[in-house]
Amino acid sequence: MHETNAFRPTRKSLMKTDPALFSALVAVWLSFAIFIFLPVIRLLITTFYVDGTFSLANMRKVLGTSYNIKALYGSLILATSVSIAGTFLGYIFALAVTRTALPRPLKVLLGAVTILPLISPPFTSSISLTLALGPNGMLLKALGIGDFSIYGFLGTWISETLTYFPVAFMVISAILNTMSATLDDAALSLGASRWRMFTTITIPLSLPGIGNSILLLFGASLADFATPLILGGHTFPVLPTEAYLMITGMFDLRGGATLSFLLLVPALLVFFLQRMLLGKKSFVSVTGKNGARTEFAKLPTALSVFICAVCLFIVVFILYLYAIILWGSFVKVWSVNNTFTLEHYAYVFKHGQKAISDTLLIAFLSTVIGSVLAVVIGYVAQRKQFFGKRFFEFTSMLNYALPGTVVGIAYIIAFNQKPILLTGTLSILVAAYVFRYYATGIRSVIASLEQIDPALEEASMSLGASSVRTFTHVTIPLIIPAVLAGMRYLFIHCMTAISATIFLVSVRWTLLTTRILESMTELQFSQASAFSMVLIVIVFLADALMLYLLKVTTSKFHKPQEISYEKVGA
Amino acid sequence: MKKSALELREVTKIFQKGREVVRAVDTVNLTVEQGELVTFLGPSGCGKTTTLRMVAGFELPTGGSITIQGKDMTNTPVNKREIGFVFQNYALFPHMSVFNNVAYGLKSRGEKDAEIRPKVIEALKLVGLQNTENRYPSQLSGGEQQRVALARVIVMEPNLLLMDEPLSNLDAKLRLHMRTEIRKIQKKLGITCLYVTHDQSEALTMADRIVVMNKGKVEQIGTPFEIYSNPQSLFVADFIGHANIVKLEIASLSQESITAKIPGGTSFTAKALKPDVYSATEVLYHVGKSAALIVRPESIQVGAAQEGEGIFPATVVSSIFVGSHIEYELLLKNNATIHASVPFSTGMEIYGEEASVSLTFDEQNSAFLPA
């Protein structure tokens, strides 16, 4: 018998055994250090370091103001309400699509309508809600309600729920679709009623999806900045807007940093909970082989009717809101002078041209750089073994897990001084987008690599190809669809997101979303609508192009793959 | 001196799974001669695939050395070893045509297009797949994909052909056909081949030599005939051909043979196997203690109950007529279960349940191993 330690693997340095991996890791860690660690550490220092020592003075000062306490409370209440209402709506929509006898075209319509909020700038529903239910609101006038204010908790809640329920819909319908239909058959054949089948099979098996959706929506709402800024008003403060106002209004960077730290704690908590939830293999996905593919059993009639009624109402309401924006962009002064005009579009193309070209350039650069990083990080994380891998994965997702406001504030603190002075540059905007939204790309690359047998790469190596050649000739062509899917979301985010970048825009570089915000704060609703329409059309066209590319690349040998859309950043 | 195609010296692989240390491959020694086809046979998790992957270079051994064509390749990366590896699931590149799959290695090597084309065509012809160059793997049947995988490897004229359960994804009939096909091609090219399988009949029919592995260790190396007729351990006896293993008390022993007591009867003598070449019979066996009698189902005769030297009285538990044979399950007097497979001929008596019978074991095809 040999001693065990006689066979201990001789640990050769990674630099020698896999120089390509070594240099990739060095480059990625370096970028993490600058764009992820540095900002967060600076944020913590600004919050907890006063006059060279650790201090809770900032915290005490911020928490000493009752208005800030109210904002913390408001953020948590709002996030809870949105996550519950949004998940409920998402579940209803998912059931309608997967478990009712609704005709196919209507199901397609449901799916299409839920895409709208995902590709729209975050203000869209706020703007249209203001136009419909705000002062001079169209719906208010039509219904003859005089004394009503959309501003406050109610408006924010409705708007965010409408914005984020599509995420719940995607997560839950994915899980409802992967359930084995034979389970339904088994329940019914054992004498269960449709109600019993629904309550004892369908609901329990979809619990992981519900849990995940609640966490996702909680995080999204907690981080949402645009909606409360427009609809929250003075009666309903939340943390992200308070932090923003403290920095841009009162130039109190320490106060803003401290407020955003308060936001960081629940956000990280949600992130960890979600990772735990997803870490456990869902028992739905391991049902093994399906025999003959059977249809899911339909829901009880009463429930079906209720579900379809709710869906119909929501779909009509969403379409109504979008119609309002479209209409609003073509009238002189909303609700006061409803004559048709193109002057707002003329304004957008004349004075908003820079914003459009800046936004496109930034989104394009971020998408390209983000995708390259996502491929490298996803590949390394899925295929390679190295020291500190879990920490590596965690770090790569950190900016994504943090609310945009926190990232934005951390970035201005970190990069407005030497050695890395980036304030006002293109790079800071691109970096903010890249390290926040490449996460979807990383996930889709990892998911795709999990589907690809490592034997393919081994086959390439055993045929004499180098590891670089294997990567470029075998791995890359096989994960192209996943990369495109990641790019698609990256681009949408870069076009529509605002919470982080609102702190980083400058005279030199501006964004469409900030122009919309400016128009809103100047009460130029029609102008805001026109900007929104332009943005929606650009995103829609780009999205269509990406989908087309996806289709082309998947045609020959790839199975069509749906990349789950796990989190919408605000 | 002639170089061996492959030499494994004390090759060991230890995996660390958390706190658990797994010796996946434990001090394996093997020499493979030029042109030989050697199969690695064993149950799943016995280390046969890990051994093959170490020869390929996908895994690096924790200890020991691997020499290919006289060159030490223990730590050589896989793409520098000039080996050919055929995967269980073929691992054809789904985004490349059959031609590009087969040409892949030649292109990596930097050969010119003009040289590549005839080689690819020739390799495809060899595996019987003319005129499929422009098709994609997904358009081929499982058997055809397997052939492409083989062509992709042999076109490289590798030092060693390594095959990891290449037939396990095919249906039974195709599997039989591909066995002979692979063997034919391997002999024609004179290529040295390591072949991993868990299917004993595959190993027996294809191999020049078989390496039986269990729990990371080599149990026995030998020709199919040696492995079958002279199993060196109970594991090998049981794994190859499902021999009956009956524990009997030793009555007397000599250098070559053992005489053991038959439960409720006389005695039976057969050769004594010595798994450890250095040990004498007296060290391995002791009078009064038990030894394991190894006897194959087809080496047993079932007859009407009678007395006599070397006869095992037994009771029939079940008898199944399977056409060419009758499969008996029998119970000896010491409650040991025996399976017998008796060739059927017309007019032969088939004993039913509970019938008392006497069994005669073919002494030439029976042997004792230490229990």
Q: Overview of this structure, please?
A:
The complex is a heterodimer of chains A (about 575) and B (about 375). With about 575 residues, chain A is mainly α. In chain A, about 75% of the residues lie in helices and about 0% in strands. Chain A has a domain of about 220 residues: MetI-like (MetI-like fold, Orthogonal Bundle), CATH 1.10.3720.10. The N terminus and C terminus of chain A are likely disordered. With about 375 residues, chain B is α+β, with helices and mostly antiparallel strands. Chain B folds into two domains: about 230 residues, P-loop containing nucleotide triphosphate hydrolases (Rossmann fold); about 130 residues, Nucleic acid-binding proteins (OB fold (Dihydrolipoamide Acetyltransferase, E2P), Beta Barrel). Chain B is about 25% helix and about 35% strand. A six-stranded mixed beta sheet of chain B has the order 6-7-8-3-9-10, sandwiched between helices. A five-stranded mixed barrel of chain B has the order 11-12-13-20-14. Chain B has a five-stranded antiparallel beta sheet with strand order 15-19-16-17-18, with no helix packed on it. The radius of gyration of chain B is 25 Å and the shape is elongated. The interface between A and B is medium-sized, with 27 and 37 residues.
- Rg of chain A (CA only): 25 Å
Structural class of chain A: mainly alpha
Low-confidence stretches of chain B: none
Q: What fraction of the residues of chain A are assigned to beta strands by DSSP? A: under 5%
Backbone CA Rg of chain B: 25 Å
Domains of chain B, number? 2
Shape of chain A: globular
Average pLDDT score of chain A: 83
Strand order of the largest sheet of chain A: 1-2
Which residue ranges of chain A are poorly predicted, with pLDDT under 50 across at least 5 consecutive positions?
Answer: 1-11, 281-293, 558-570
Structural class of chain B: alpha+beta
Looking at the structure, the CATH topology of the largest domain in chain B is Rossmann fold
Distance between the termini of chain B: 42 Å
